[in-house]
Amino acid sequence: MTTPTLAVWKFTSCDGCQLTLLDCEDELLSLAGQVRIAHFLEASAAIEPGPYDISLVEGSITTAEELGRITAIREQSRVVVAIGACATHGGIQALRNLADVDEFAALVYARPEHIATLATSTAISAHVAVDYELRGCPIDRRQLLGLLDALLHGRAPDIPDTSVCTECKRRGTTCVTVADGIPCLGPVTHAGCGAICPAFHRGCYGCFGPMRNPNVGALLPILRVNGMPQPDIDRVLTTFAVTAPEYAEYTGTDRRRDEPPP
Ligand code: SF4
Ligand code: SF4
Ligand code: SF4
């Protein structure tokens, strides 16, 4: 039996999700015995040609070059996994979708005419079929290892799409909203991080994006009564998941520019 191949790809991103894979240290050694890492520029300059069994894709699509590259990667990959908020929702850089990217470029760069970029930052799934998504900014290492273990053993990965509240209860953390009036997005945020922020006595700010069927309307008055004004609610709902349709009607932002370019 041939050893499965793993490829890790970077698009527009900060590399933090790839670093999560490198941070797995001991587990990586055992993983290295089960897969052949065929493409992972963050770790090695050695590159093997495709096809690849598993492709982990970090980052969003923000340039014409990336549009072509993600199509080629999809064609060469048996399983494509989008990892992190950039890859699943366009990331923080998708804030450009709500503004004028030319204006941004003129403000930031001395020679903006040299910047070749699309007007939008979009998720990988807006362009090619994605088999699985791992949420988070960055992703959670337990979830990543669980996903790889499942794929390497021919199982479907278990990626719960319930809320952070379920994880909070499971680990026995006292609710920061109920106990201390701290605004928390946990009731609408996708599970997966293990409810890290409430465990450190701070509210969830939604870096895993929306859970399945979030009841955002029910949460808003609770956020407000706990001291989060509407502009902050708009900000927190759009920071990591600008392209999430689940939040669109609550932030009132114009999302027409989320459409992928032709
Ligand atoms: S999701 Fe966050 S940590 Fe991961 S690449 Fe994007 S910005 Fe970095
Ligand atoms: S602290 Fe936040 S995530 Fe935890 S139970 Fe309360 S609202 Fe839910
Ligand atoms: S608690 Fe919320 S903000 Fe904190 S890591 Fe989890 S999803 Fe992200």
UniProtKB/TrEMBL annotation:
Q: Which UniProt keywords apply?
A: Oxidoreductase
Q: Per its UniProt record, what InterPro entries does this chain match?
A: Hydrogenase_assoc-protein (IPR051349), NADH_UbQ_OxRdtase-like_20kDa (IPR006137), NiFe_Hase_small_N_sf (IPR037024)
Classification via Pfam families: Oxidored_q6
Decide whether keyword Oxidoreductase is in the record.
Answer: yes
Oxidoreductase in keyword set: yes
Q: Which residues form the NADH:ubiquinone oxidoreductase-like 20kDa subunit domain?
A: 14-150
Q: Name one GO molecular function term.
A: iron-sulfur cluster binding
**Name the record gives this protein:** Oxidoreductase
Q: Which organism is it from?
A: Nocardia stercoris
Phylogenetic classification of the source organism: Bacteria, Bacillati, Actinomycetota, Actinomycetes, Mycobacteriales
